[in-house]
Automatic annotation (TrEMBL):
Gene: hmp
Enzyme nomenclature, EC number: 1.14.12.17
Record remark on domains: Consists of two distinct domains; an N-terminal heme-containing oxygen-binding domain and a C-terminal reductase domain with binding sites for FAD and NAD(P)H.
Protein name as it appears in the record: Flavohemoprotein
Keyword match Phosphoprotein: no
Superkingdom to which the source organism belongs: Bacteria
Domain FAD-binding FR-type: 152-261
Family annotation (Pfam families): FAD_binding_6 (PF00970), Globin (PF00042), NAD_binding_1 (PF00175)
Annotated region described as Reductase, given as residue ranges: 149-405
Keywords carried by this UniProt record: Detoxification, FAD, Flavoprotein, Heme, Iron, Metal-binding, NAD, NADP, Oxidoreductase, Oxygen transport, Transport
Family matches, as CDD domains: flavohem_like_fad_nad_binding, Yhb1-globin-like
Role noted for this protein: Is involved in NO detoxification in an aerobic process, termed nitric oxide dioxygenase (NOD) reaction that utilizes O(2) and NAD(P)H to convert NO to nitrate, which protects the bacterium from various noxious nitrogen compounds. Therefore, plays a central role in the inducible response to nitrosative stress.
Length: 405
């Protein structure tokens, strides 16, 4: 329990962390990896190089400082991060190491501002915050391992099928080598895959949304291939070009809190951009099975039909289920696309949403690239949709959506 004095010290440092948080977390990661290079196996090095992880951590530290006297306020964020930690294998023994290097980075960056009193207060605060993470993550580890068909860590899966879905997206069907039944998952969750790529110094771990409904004898991920010269392409290119049917990939149990709430029967709107449709396809397939009377509108934005994955599956559902509507929006349609009878062109806007949706009294789930996410969030915000009816997920470290002022 923090003293009132230390709470005041932590809260007084919040403005400094807001201004210099990324500087501190960047120095933290430099120190951490220099002294503990073995931890590089746990981290996405692309996110490190692009500064995404540093920004995400800085935001989390700032939120902790702001809410140090009411940590329950940030529990949703803690749980979201904890899901990621469980899926990649972060352990309790990592936290003291992280705390040591985070305090050293604060001392180095803040200089005279990092007084002994400030560092002592932050050492105590970090211990409390770390214990919250450790307890939540241990519960998640136990749940993943003890559920029917569950397992600890990474388990070997065979690629039983590899199917091209568009010019840039390929689906991989994964079945456990040990032939044991698979644990179910909540639609919207992801798995982590662990890859040892020849020529790469460190193991790569990536999260991919499960793109099919639960209760199958396989897991399916649908992966976008990034450009060869893009640092993000290391893993996706390896999967697309080098992984073949019959190959084995280590996989962790499903995780994630961006999940469909099937306890509600409110009309549902699923809005996706690009490869962001993968968790929403899982949600769509689930809701038509478990809630066949629930009204669903599936909206997908892509550049054109050549980059539009899984459209056959969605169209088939729309043909079979009267309660499902489907709209596609192409920003750069091909000549063939322009011949389509019901072609929508352009980008997601409030005006367009109001044209295709009868009202805003719905539950909205959306996922896609950053620009798409901001545009969708702002459109819904302008329409007066309350935040509790908006559910979304970023691929990679969480970011802050830009609100309308």
């Amino acid at each position: 329990m923090l003293s009132n004095e230390n709470i005041a010290i932590i809260k007084s440092t919040a403005p400094i962390l807001k201004d210099r948080g990324v500087e501190i977390t960047s120095r933290f990661y430099e120190r951490l990896f220099a002294n503990h290079p073995e931890l590089l196996h746990l981290f996405n090095q692309t996110n490190q190089k692009k500064g995404r992880q540093q920004t995400a951590l800085a935001n989390a530290v700032y939120a902790a400082a702001e809410n140090i006297d009411r940590l329950e306020e940030i529990l949703p964020v803690v749980k979201q991060i904890a899901h990621k930690h469980r899926s990649i294998g972060v352990q309790a023994e990592h936290y003291p190491v992280v705390g040591e290097h985070l305090l050293l980075a604060m001392k180095e960056v803040l200089g005279d501002g990092a007084t002994p009193e400030v560092l002592q207060a932050w050492e105590e605060a970090y211990s409390i915050i770390a214990n919250v993470f450790i307890e939540i993550e241990q519960d998640m580890y136990d749940e993943a391992a003890m559920q029917p068909g569950g397992w600890e860590g990474f388990k070997a899966f065979k690629v039983t099928r590899k199917e091209i879905e568009s010019d840039v997206i390929t689906s991989f069907y994964l079945e456990p080598i040990d032939k044991k039944p698979l644990p179910s998952f909540s639609p919207g969750q992801y798995i982590s895959v662990q890859l040892h790529i020849e020529g790469e110094a460190y193991t790569h771990v990536r999260q991919y949304s499960l793109s099919d409904a639960p209760h199958q004898d396989y897991y399916r991920i649908s992966v976008k291939q990034e450009c060869d010269h893009d640092p993000e392409g290391v893993v996706s290119n390896y999967l697309h070009k080098s992984i073949k049917e019959g190959d084995t990939i280590p996989v962790s149990a499903p995780a994630g809190d961006f999940v469909l709430d099937t306890s509600r029967d409110t009309p549902l709107v699923l809005i996706s951009g690009g490869v962001g449709l993968t968790p929403l396809v899982s949600m769509l397939k689930t809701v038509v099975t478990q809630q066949p009377n629930r009204e669903v509108t599936f909206i997908h934005a892509a550049r054109n039909s050549q980059l539009h994955a899984l459209k056959g599956e969605i169209n088939q559902i729309v043909k079979q289920i009267d309660t499902v509507k489907n709209y596609t929006l192409y920003s750069n349609p091909t000549e063939e696309d322009r011949k389509l009878k019901d072609l929508n062109t352009g980008y997601i806007t409030l005006e367009w949403l109001q044209k295709v949706l009868p009202h805003n009294q719905m539950d909205f789930y959306f996922c896609g690239p950053s620009g798409f996410m901001n545009a969708t969030f702002q459109a819904l915000q302008q329409w007066g949709v309350p935040e509790e009816r908006m559910h979304y997920e970023f691929f990679g470290p969480a970011k802050q959506l830009e609100t309308v002022h």
